[in-house]
Amino acid sequence: MNGITKNDLSYNETKLDFEALLKTAAFATSELRQQIKRLDSQLGDDLLHGNITGIHLESQWLSEYAQSLAIAADTYSALLGAKTREDISIINHMGGGE
């Protein structure tokens, strides 16, 4: 669609570029890990200085980023494993049948 990937949206069909999915999941996993490291460091500073608001906010963000990391890493792992599989199915399709 954009010349960078091989994704294609047609009238009644969607083709997804597997390598683009893999790169996206790897990037998301890496970025989330970096954000968690940054937030963990900030939380350490907040704890050291008794920053009540910072402690509260950083811990909430850490929880949210950790959940997102679990999803991204699981997706990346599944995509890596899918390289050796004959069939790949996409579930939770928002629309007509599967």
Task: Report on this structure.
By secondary structure, the protein is mainly α. The chain has a domain at 18-82. The protein is built from two helices and two strands. The protein has a two-stranded antiparallel sheet with strand order 1-2. A hairpin with a 4-residue loop joins strand 1 and strand 2 (14-15). Helix 1 packs antiparallel against helix 2 (52-82). The longest helix is centred in the middle third of the chain and has 32 residues, at 18-49. The two termini are 23 Å apart. The model has no long low-confidence stretch (mean pLDDT 92).
In short:
The protein is mainly alpha-helical and 98 residues long. It is 64% helix and 4% strand.
Low-confidence stretches: none
Per DSSP E runs of 2 or more residues, the count of β-strands stands at 2
User: Average pLDDT, to the nearest integer?
Assistant: 92
- Write down the overall geometry: elongated
Number of helices: 2
Percent helix, as a range, is: 55-70%
**Strand order across the largest sheet:** 1-2
What would you report as the Rg, rounded to the nearest angstrom? 19 Å
Oligomer: single chain
Order of helices and strands: EEHH
Terminal CA distance reads 23 Å
